[in-house]
Amino acid sequence: MPNDYFQFQQFRIEQAACAMKVSTDACLLGAAAGLTGATRLLDIGTGTGLLALMAAQRHATVAIEAVEIDAAAATQATANAAATPWAGRIAVRALSLAEYAATRPAPFSHIICNPPFFRQSLRSPDAARSTARHEAADSLSFEALAAFAVEFLLPAGLLTVLLPPPEMQAFEQVAAVVGLHPATRLVVRHRPGSKPLRHITGFRRAAEALRETELIIRTAENDAEYSAEFRALLAGFYLAL
User: Fold this and answer.
1) Nearest to residue 48, comparing CAs of 132, 152, 159?
2) Which of 69, 85, 229, 240 ranks highest by number of CB atoms within 10 Å?
3) For residues 199 and 212, what is the distance between their CA atoms, to the nearest angstrom?
4) 39-65: per-residue pLDDT in tens?
5) Shortest CA distance to 41 belongs to which of 122, 33, 235?
6) Taking residues 155-174, what's their average pLDDT?
7) 3-state SS assignment for residue 114
8) How many CB atoms are closer than 10 A to CB 16?
9) How many Å apart are CA 191 and CA 193, to the nearest integer?
10) How many helices (H) and strands (E) are present in the chain, helices listed first?
11) Angle in degrees, CA 168, 185, 225, rounded to 5
């Protein structure tokens, strides 16, 4: 069973009230998302607040808003942010994305999201966990995410999303309809030569040549050992690598 907290170098994530706990996926997204030129950042579906806190640690001046549909998780994310040196730069909103859009927030330079991606699999009996893990019309659909991003990103803004490759292909098709195009892609593999586990893709309005890189989590020689590139990426966050 996961711990009720996860200790990072510069902050602690309390997660007892959150359906989705700290994961390798989220840590990779938080460490790899492009933040160049960030001024206002939105974390959609913040859960514990992890991505917002990682962005705050990485970028000294960016103002961050975080949206979370689950009230208990939003309360915990607020408390997690309040316990850090960056509390004054992070605001958590306990709203659905549609409710948040209705408030007409100022546009963002960056949006990050690890959206629900089990589009057709069986749902968990745990309603909160199911909402966090599955795309649904009453939670966060790919269409809703893409439409929000194209409306509330600045003209040169960046939307960064983490998904498994099949779901990312589906999201790219949805994004193209509204005028968002993949600009960068980080392909995440467990070991050298293994099939891709996740894509971390950055989307912009302007179509450009896709820049693709790769990250291997574990070494070829020892499945219990993190690769050099994984350790370098998370060096500022994990207590031990």
Assistant:
1) 132
2) 69
3) 10
4) 999 999 999 999 999 999 999 999 999
5) 33
6) 97
7) coil
8) 12
9) 6
10) 8, 10
11) 100
Q: Does domain 5-181 have CATH number 3.40.50.720?
A: no
pLDDT bin (cut points 50, 70, 90) of residue 19 is confident
User: Which among 115, 53, 136, 142 has a CA at the least distance from the CA of 150?
Assistant: 142
User: Parallel, antiparallel, or unpaired for β 181-189 and 196-204?
Assistant: antiparallel
- 20 pLDDT band, cuts 50/70/90, is confident
Q: How far apart are CA 21 and CA 23, in angstroms?
A: 6
Using an 8 Å Cβ cutoff, are 33 and 112 in contact? yes
CB 138 within 8 A of CB 184: no
User: Is the separation of the CB atoms in 180 and 203 below 8 Å?
Assistant: yes
Kind and range of the H or E run holding 172: helix 165-178
- Give the model's pLDDT for residue 229: 96
- Could you report the per-residue pLDDT of 180-210, keeping only the tens digit for each? 999 999 999 999 999 999 999 999 999 999 9
Q: Do 23 and 60 touch, CB atoms closer than 8 A?
A: no
C-alpha 87/C-alpha 149 separation (Å) is 25
- Please give the Cα distance from 97 to 101 (Å, whole number): 6
Host H or E run for residue 233: helix 228-234
Compute and round to an integer the Cα radius of gyration of the chain. Answer: 17
